[in-house]
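[09:14] KT: can someone run the structure on this one? pasting the chain below
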Amino acid sequence: DIVGCMVIDEKDDTPLGEVVDVETYPTNDAYIVRMADGSRRMLPATKQALKVIDIEKKRIVVNTDNLLEFE
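[09:31] RB: done, structure tokens below
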């Protein structure tokens, strides 16, 4: 399950936050990430955004250029 996975920056392996929800849209899903500072961001579930998904280790490595504001 994606919810509960830690989101990691691909550039420097820094933990950014945790996936707290998944939203479904016509073009692709989006992961809602609670960032370390408490803010929330949306991460499109695309090849450009998601570099490595390791469900066993609860870890997703991402391209941070794809993190979007979410309210």
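[09:33] KT: thanks! The radius of gyration is 11 Å.
[09:34] RB: yep, looked fine to me
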